[in-house]
Each structure stands twice: as structure tokens, then as C-alpha cells.
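S.,

Sequence below, as promised.
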Amino acid sequence: MSRLLVPLVGTDVDADASRLAFRIAAQMNWFVEGFHARSSLTHIMPAMGEGYAVGMMAQFSEAATETLDAQARNAEEVFAAAARAANAPLAADPADGLRFAGRYTQEEGHPADLIARRSRLSDVTVFTTTGRADSFTLGDAMIDVLLAERQPVLLLQPDAAYDATAPVLIAWDGSAEAAAAVRAARPFLAKAREVVVAQVEDDIETGERALADCRNIVEYLALSGIGVRVEKVARDGQTTAAALYDCAKGCAAALVVMGAYGHGRLRERLLGGVTVRMIDAAPGPLFLAH
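The prediction came back faster than expected:
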């Protein structure tokens, strides 16, 4: 049984994430875990010195607790509603034997850290573009899952109409990051009716090394019964991200699989890298791994 992790923060962004997670899990026959990382009071209470009255601290604590309780209730209700809409049973324990099912869990602490830790034994963690942009917690957690935990991430648009049988594009440059993404994405590749390995010509090594890397991915996926079509993509003055998206559009790809932050997150953010451009544009679902 594979597990799809959906981080929940108790705000409006949870509805899209939960709905999309169940849509994907239904096609993959996977288990969905809705995980609410609840902030502890120690993480949100301001630093108060002796000048603050005990009554003021107690009042702030009470108000904060009410907010946290409301977020937890909202997260659980939204996740349960998404499960009902998808006709997915809510299981108390994954060991119950239900494959396409869901479960809501909650822990208290530092939210981004909790989400990152929970991702360690999940097959992929789902984030939405709106969740990443609107929630500092989810934005930080996505980076931690990718870079600190080295776990794969599925980044989705709220209006994504994901079809597991649609073509998938692999952005292949022979790097360790791209290879990690391919390994983690094999269940998605196996469902697709076509898998296209795209190599942007200016970004790959020439000669025997490039040919060997290309043969290697073809042979590796063939061992899983996955046939691929290799396509050389001309940059034609575009950025690598733009060239890849043009290629994805041309082959009607429902998902782009790629390595993330091959040159380091800070360098990519400062100088503009492929990962940053792909995430910022993200017209379609991205499967990312580092």
C-alpha cells in the first residue's frame, strides 16, 4: 500500500489539496493521510517580558488556543468532506486492509518540522500552488520535504484535472536529482499511456556520456515495463523551463517529472534556476524530487 500525504493547516487552502489528493489516490488505489500539524503555544506566543501582566498573557493564550482549535476542526471537516465526495472510507488504521481510503491525523509542535518528519514514510507529499503561496507553513514545509528529507513532492494547481493515464513528461538531464525523481515517480509512469523523456539540447552533456545517460533511463524504466519515447528539445532562445513547458504542451502531458534544486536553492533563487521558474510558472502538475 502506498501513502499520499496531504498537509493541512486549517485554512481555505485545505479544500483543494484534499480534493486533489483523493482524486489522484482513487486512480492510483492509494491511501490518503490528511495530516494537520498544529502549532503549539510555545511557537506562537510572543516573547513577553516582565512588563506584561499575567492576565494579558493568559488572555492571549486563551485566544490563541481558540484559533488553533478552530483550525484543527476545520482541517478535519474539510478532509472528511473530500473523502465523502470521493467515496473513500475513512479508516482508523491503514492496516485495516483498505487501499483507497483516508485517515485524518494530528500532531502538535512546529508545523513545518512536523510535516517534514511525517513525509519520511510517505510515498509522496501533496502541495498546491495556492497553499504554497498563501501559507508560510506550507511553503517552508515543501522546501523541507524536498531538501532536508529528500522526499518527493507533487505540486498541483487548484483547477488541475489530473488523469493518471495521460502522457507524462520526464525532464531528463542525467543528474542525480532527475534520477531521484524518476525512481520515485515510477508508479505514475506505469499508469501513463505514454512517457516522454525530454532532453533540452543546451542542458545535456554531449558525446558518449549523454548517450549513456539516455540509454540508462530507457533501460531502467523498461525493467518496470515502462516504454518511453526520447525527444531532443531545442531551446531556440528560450529558458529551459519555457522549452520544457512547450514540449509538455506539445505531447499533452498531464504531469512533468523533474529533479529539483540541482544547483542549490539559494543560488537558483538569486540567479534564476529551472526549478524556480518551473514552480513559479507551473501551468500543470509537477512531480519533484531532490
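Strands lie at 3-8, 31-39, 101-109, 124-128, 153-156, 168-171, 195-200, 229-233, 255-259, 286-289.

Coffee later?
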